[in-house]
Description:
The protein is an alpha/beta fold.
Amino acid sequence: MNDKKSILVHTCCASCSSYVLPHLQENFHVSAFFYNPNIYPEKEYFLRLEETKSLCYHLGVNLVIGPYNSSAWTNAIYSCRNLPEKSKRCWKCYNLRLDNTARKAADLGIGLFTTTLSVSPHKIYNRIEEGGKRAAERFSVAFHSEDFKKKDGFKISVKRSKQLGLIRQNYCGCVLSLKESERKLGQKEEGDKRTPNKPDM
């Protein structure tokens, strides 16, 4: 008798999901929820969505698509818009997506939810866990607490992304993280220009 519980998994992109979804399928009936109003620009949003659709089809996972309402994200983080990555600005972004995933799980009659966000080494797990538990209590569902980057989860996601031909992004998704990524890249390129060439041996 198959007594696996159902779980709704917030998916940020296909590359992160390439590890998390199959990992969870070992113990749960998995449905994915693509809700990412933070992603900028719109072209990038639809690129990530299409890859997620393809991955879910490949894995036999039902995909639920949330609204792309960028103003919801802007309103959520506005007071922290001048803070850097890995700050309260990001916690508010986590919470927006976790709240909406918990709400969707409740609407669908799925009593458990989680997110792929923790597979990234750039995300702060304890903040994700705190937001997940708050959202779970608010919508009367449960949050599956698991740091997916552990046990080589991130490394496996990188390997599977290459195998499946998935795009690995160089920024989290929002316009602010894009600007930060471009600034860091510009600083690196400027530093490379200043590095003297080694003399021929």
